[in-house]
């Protein structure tokens, strides 16, 4: 990880560390909005499927199932954003700078293969985000429950910690399918037949350890980013419940 930072700064300066930042910035608001909306919708689905439940309080397993279901709608936005981001981040490694920015990537991809090219890796994204979101929301609700006081109050520090642990839980599970997804989305058209083809090629050439490349940086980012996300979610929800 340190070697990547050194070489990136040496070649591209500090700007190189922020390459590919445009798509996540543009996509982060709708992605999180859809994620939390679909999570709450999924909880309603779980309620509807268990009409004879003895308690209105969810079990951790039910929270986890709702989290996994929430990945469906989110993937429709996440997949093209990730595709564009990955292509911007890897360009220049061989000396060629192909794209001028996110819109230029979209133009090239659409010209190359239409919408299917832009949405390449959607299935792989869901295979990452399904289990990842299950762990994400399950870990958050579990940690929140453990930190709650007897009167069910939760202070901001506890929300931050629970959110951070949710991010760690998600990426610990999601990093292998994320590696495969990134390979699939960044490869030239026709190089791989799909998710399983990337997996076979990766295991054959680099071994099982290749599936966990990038775990360290992902976990370093996951804790603070998701701590902030859940604090914003809880604060916004509290404010809107007060106003409406």
UniProtKB/TrEMBL annotation:
Cellular component GO terms, alphabetical: mitochondrial membrane
Transmembrane segments: 20-39, 154-175
GO biological process: carnitine transmembrane transport; mitochondrial transport
Record localization: Mitochondrion membrane
Keyword hit for Mitochondrion: yes
Alphabetized GO MF terms: O-acyl-L-carnitine transmembrane transporter activity
Topology with respect to the bilayer: Multi-pass membrane protein
Record keywords, A-Z: Membrane, Mitochondrion, Repeat, Transmembrane, Transmembrane helix, Transport
Family of this protein: Belongs to the mitochondrial carrier (TC 2.A.29) family.
Name of this chain's protein: Mitochondrial carrier
Protein source organism: Gigaspora margarita
């Amino acid at each position: 990880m340190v070697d990547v930072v050194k070489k990136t700064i040496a070649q591209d300066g500090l700007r190189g560390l922020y390459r590919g930042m445009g798509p996540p910035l543009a996509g982060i608001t709708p992605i999180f909005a859809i994620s939390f909306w679909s999570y709450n919708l999924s909880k309603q689905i779980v309620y509807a499927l268990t009409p004879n439940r003895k308690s209105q309080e969810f079990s951790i397993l039910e929270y986890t199932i709702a989290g996994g279901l929430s990945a469906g709608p989110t993937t429709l936005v996440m997949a093209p954003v990730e595709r564009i981001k990955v292509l911007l981040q890897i360009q220049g490694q061989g000396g060629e700078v192909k794209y001028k920015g996110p819109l230029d990537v979209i133009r090239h991809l659409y010209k190359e293969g239409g919408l299917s090219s832009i949405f390449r890796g959607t299935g792989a994204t869901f295979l990452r985000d399904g289990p990842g979101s299950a762990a994400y929301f399950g870990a958050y609700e579990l940690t929140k429950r453990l930190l709650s006081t007897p009167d069910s109050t939760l202070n901001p520090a506890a929300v931050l910690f629970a959110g951070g642990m949710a991010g760690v839980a998600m990426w610990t599970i999601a990093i292998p399918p994320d590696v495969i997804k990134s390979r699939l989305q960044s490869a030239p058209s026709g190089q791989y037949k799909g998710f399983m083809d990337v997996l076979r090629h990766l295991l054959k050439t680099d071994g099982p350890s290749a599936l966990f490349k990038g775990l360290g940086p992902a976990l370093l980012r996951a804790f603070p980013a998701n701590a902030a996300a859940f604090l914003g979610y809880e604060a916004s929800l509290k404010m809107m419940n007060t106003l409406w």
